[in-house]
Amino acid sequence: MALKSCLDLGIADAIHHHGGAATLSQIGAVATLHPSKICCLRRLMRVLTVSGVFSVQQPSPRDDVQVELVYTLTAVSHLLVSSASVNIVPVINLQLQPNIVSSFSELGAWFQHKLPEPDLFKLKHGKTFWEIAHHNAAFNTIVNDAMASDSRFLMDIAIRECGSVFEGIGSLVDVAGGHGGAAQAISKSFPHIKCSVMDLGHVIAGAPSGTDVQYIAGDMFESIPQADVVFLKWIMHDWSDDDCIKILKNCNKAIAPKDAGGKVIIVDMVVGGGPQDLKHKETQVLFDLYIMLLNGIERDEQEWKKIIMAAGFSDFKITPILGVRSIIELYP
Q1: pLDDT at residue 139 in the model
Q2: Which run of H or E residues covers position 277?
Q3: Can you say whether the dihedral through the CA atoms of 56, 62, 63, 64 is positive or negative?
Q4: Largest CB tally within 10 Å, which of 30, 119, 259, 310?
Q5: Which residues, listed in sequence order, are joined to residue 323 by a DSSP beta bridge?
Q6: Contacts of 91 (CB under 8 A, 6+ apart)
Q7: How far apart are CA 245 and CA 199, in angstroms?
Q8: Which residues have CB under 8 Å from 90's CB, separation 6+?
Q9: DSSP of 165-196
């Protein structure tokens, strides 16, 4: 909850306001803390510095003056500055949203139920995550803002580091692409690609106008519009194997033949893929536990192979280039 408090108080914004370095009193003034809580802020900042969210500079001691510690932004907290063009504040707001966090209080009880129903979220709230997103405008906004924020952050890296996956494509449909953050990034970098986004009607209703992206209301479990390439970013981990196979079979029907450049591009985790340091491994397995919220799963390579082949694809390629996530290309 230290990170949630950091966002609620706007601590990264306060430090940014002071040029990237600020004392407790300066942070407290911008965050409008009660003066009596400055000592408590010191304790919160201690947690956030030990965990690497911020760094702290120890000034030289002076006999005649009590010198305050100076807190500075790190690579992590630069992404928590809400005014920055690329930040992940909406993503963290979704992950720490009270309905989501409170669902994990039922984790022990959930293990005693037979799959697939109810999922962890429904067990706690009586409705699925998707049902609440459909009927609760405020929750739906949090979800869509998070997905757009993730697209701005991730697609810049994906296009810069692995842009070749988009070469030779004439058309692309971003399935369950929300308000089109990923599709817009692809369209901007590859103007020759005709990009479209398909999502549920209530999502498309809030999509921006005046972009080069076409928005199509639809259900990926029923059908997917025809395109050379189908793009799926951070979608498959939400769904069971059976549901993923249904989605991928519809993708296979929608894409062009292999000799015409047809393929499916998936951006998702491959557990065990990518850097092998402890931090990456911990993040991947913790995300796997987290996505139990929806009865989802973060898959390892063999689990990906199982659903890809069951959906009728001939081959696939994994490129672990996006930190804890990978680009997976599926060929018909």
Answers
A1: 93
A2: none
A3: negative
A4: 119
A5: none
A6: 146, 149, 150, 153
A7: 18
A8: 142, 145, 146, 148, 149
A9: GGTT-SEEEEET-TT-HHHHHHHHH-TTSEEE
Torsion over CA of 289, 295, 297 and 302, rounded to 10 degrees? Answer: 130
CB 71 within 8 A of CB 55: yes
**Of 87, 103, 115, 51, the residue nearest 291 (C-alpha):** 103
Token pair recorded at residue 175: 């399935």
Q: What is the mean pLDDT of each run of 10 residues along the chain (332 residues)?
A: 90 94 92 90 94 87 72 95 90 94 94 89 94 92 92 90 91 95 94 96 89 95 97 95 97 95 96 88 93 94 98 95 92 96
Task: Write phi, then psi, for 161 (nearest 5 degrees).
Answer: -95, -25
pTM for the whole thing?
A: 0.88
Question: How far apart, in whole angstroms, are the C-alpha atoms of residue 12 and residue 79?
Answer: 9
Per-residue pLDDT, 18? 94
Indicate which residues carry an active-site annotation. 237
199, burial (CB in 10 Å: exposed 0-12, middle 13-18, buried 19+): buried
Q: Maximum distance among all alpha carbons in the chain?
A: 77
* Residue in 281, 266, 292, 294 with CA at minimum distance from that of residue 324: 281
Neighbouring C-beta atoms of residue 315, cutoff 10 Å: 12
- Amino acid identity for residue 138 in this structure: A
Query: What's the start-to-end Cα distance of the chain, in Å?
Result: 45
